[in-house]
Every structure is written in C-alpha cells, then in structure tokens.
Amino acid sequence: MRAHFLHISRGNAWALRSASAAWAALALSLAFGASTAGAQSGQSAEKGVTKSTQAVKPASTPKTASPSKPSSSTAARSSQPTQNAKTARNTKSPKKNVARAPAQGVRASKVKAELGYNSMGSRLGLRSELADLSLNSSAVMVMDQVSGEVLLEKNADAALPIASITKVMTAMVVLDAGQPLDEAIVIAREDTQLEKYSASRLKVGASFTRAELLHLALMSSENRAANALGRSYPGGLPAFVIAMNEKARALGMTSSNFVEPTGLSSSNVASPRDLAVLVNAAHHVPLIRDYSTDRDAVVRVGGRQQQFRNTNALTRDENWDIGLSKTGFIRDAGKCLVMQARLDQRDVIIVMLDAEGSAKRLADAERIRRWLSIDRDRQASAARS
C-alpha cells in the first residue's frame, strides 16, 4: 500500500486526502447502521418477537444475513413450527393471522392462528347475522334429538357447501348397498385425480378392505378412501352420486345436492336443517357411530403401520360425550362440524357450517355446550316456580 502512495504525484495529494476521508466516513456510517440494527433487534425481542441470533459482521460488509423463514407445517408432517416462528410470522400481518383469545372453556393449546379465506357464507354476509347466541359460524342448528325441538338456529335453511360432511352421506350409501366390508379395494390413480389437491398417505396400489376405507373416510376424512368407496360402488361413481341424491330425498333433505363422494367440490351443498336430519339417521347406524368417533387407529399402508387420528379434537376431550362426529373444510365451505352428543342429560344434534377457523369452530362448540347447560338450568328453575 505504501509503495502505491509513493507513485502518486504531489498534485494529487489533495485528491488522496479527500478519498481517505470518504472511506473513513463510509466505515463510520456502516458501523452506526450495524449498531442501530442491533438495537432494533433487541427492541423487537422485548415485545415478544424472538429472532435468531446473528453474528455481527464487520462494518465494511454492507449486507446482513436475512433470518431464515419458518417452514410451513402440512397435514402429512408431525412437526410444527416453533412458537417463536409462529409469533414472528403473526407480526407480519396481525389483522389476518393473530388468533383472538380463546373463549372460556376452550383450551389455549387448541387455538392456532389461521389465514383468512373468502367462504361462500362470508360472501353472502351470513356470518354477521344475529342469533340467540353469538357464534362465528355462518349457519347453525342445534336440535333435541329425542323431541325434535329446535333449540338454537342461525340461517338454518341456508344451503351452503358442506365439504367433508359429505362423507357421512357417502357412508350411508355404501352401507345401504350391502357390499362386503371385508372386500379388498385397491387405491387407483383415479382416486388421486380429484377436484382439488388433497394430501394423502394412501398411495396408488395400496390395498384396503371396504371397512378400513370407511373407517379412514369418517375418522380421518381421507378423500382417496371416500373416492375409492364411490368408485367401487355398483355402476361406479355416476351411479353412486345418483344414489346419494336419492338417499337425500328419501330422508327429506330438501335443499341438498351431491356431485361427488369426498366433499372437495363446493357443489356439494346442504342446509343445517337438512344435515340435522342426516346426522340423526346416521346415528342409528352403529358402524358410522363407532368409526366417526374413534380417536385414532393404526392401519397398515404399503407394508408399514401408520397411525391416523380423528379430525375432531373434541373426540379427545373428556368434557364431551360424542356419539357421531364429522368435520369438513374447503375454502368455499369454511370450517364445518356436525355432531351428535349427550350434553347435560340431553341428546342433541349440533350442526355448524362456515366458521372462520378451527379455533373459532371449537369456540362455537364450547359456547353451545355452555349455553345448553344454562338453558337447561333456566327451564328447571322456571318449572319449579
């Protein structure tokens, strides 16, 4: 470096001094910027956003390493993002992603931030409709199963997409046909080419009995299982869909329509009033009761034992005595849930369509459970007086 300076003429000395001053100013600026970034990082950590620790680079390096993005969880993965990663993600878009505090009686561990989606019920403005009980779901019906009395309703006659609630009807039609439950059915490529992409552990070529497919469709909402059941029906899928709609009419479901057996199509629609009828009928079928309420099951898939769980977390909640259960979700349908349950010495049917997320669906169910208990106490008090 010194040799280089010796070859500079005296006429250029002023330029050299100016360049040196400029380099010194730049280094000072970079050093100040690094210290400011460190201060901002510390401030964010105090607010509950924990960022990964980064080594401080020399002031001469203008770029800093970006924090790695948290990996998104999928249905097929058992691992989930860490709590810190969730918190960091939520601060980017708080209006859409931050879940509100859970309603009383809902465990905080069940509440997860979820992205919003534009369901049919929300587009129609049904979610904001008022009812006797404040609920997030767009359409609701609660019915006394014994007397048939409607205990609570909100847009009960609105025909909306029902997503995987469809699989209750699928099970009814399969069992009505009387096909052997121990008959082997092989998952075909046709069972993977569904209306919407759907993750599944049921690989093409894997063989299951009809009973196993029913179990997986009702408990874990396996779409390939439901499609294989419809495909193996006498006459194939076209005949199966006809049978679904005939069954709906026979039950008195006047606002329902089915076009396929999985629920991935938003053209599968029904009203809460119709679905209460379907749940009541399905509850009289022991196999549907058992399969839909199993908490988990181990099934051999491709030579390996794999565990499947119930998509309704309430089946694992000791506060609930559930006799039939089915969840559903596609974007047009929102989060849906139908149940038969015994609450406060009373058998009831609960139908909830188009909640904004899993947490709000659970919160609605808990509100209904508490409301039924309070209503029962009120009626008993009125009878005594």
Please tell me about this protein's structure.
This protein has 385 residues and is of the alpha+beta class. It has a domain at 116-384: Beta-lactamase. Helices cover 39% and strands 16% of the residues. The protein has helices at residues 2-6, 13-46, 83-92, 94-97, 120-123, 166-176, 210-219, 223-231, 236-251, 272-282, 286-293, 358-384, and strands at residues 139-144, 150-154, 160-161, 184-186, 207-209, 269-270, 296-301, 304-309, 322-330, 334-343, 346-355. Strand 10 (334-343) and strand 11 form a beta hairpin.
In terms of topology, how is this protein built?
Blueprint: H1 2-6, H2 13-46, H3 83-92, H4 94-97, H5 120-123, E1 139-144, E2 150-154, E3 160-161, H6 166-176, E4 184-186, E5 207-209, H7 210-219, H8 223-231, H9 236-251, E6 269-270, H10 272-282, H11 286-293, E7 296-301, E8 304-309, E9 322-330, E10 334-343, E11 346-355, H12 358-384
Helix pairs in contact: 6-9, 7-8, 7-11
Overall shape: it is globular
**What's the CATH architecture of the domain at 116-384?**
3-Layer(aba) Sandwich
Output mean pLDDT: 77
Biggest sheet record = 5 strands, antiparallel
What is the first-to-last residue Cα distance?
Answer: 102 Å
Spatial strand order of the main sheet:
2-1-11-10-9
Q: Assign the structural class, choosing from mainly alpha, mainly beta, alpha/beta, alpha+beta, or little secondary structure.
A: alpha+beta
Question: What's the quick description here?
Answer:
The chain is an alpha+beta fold and 385 residues long.
List keywords for this structure.
five-stranded antiparallel beta sheet; Beta-lactamase; 385 residues; two-stranded antiparallel sheet; alpha+beta
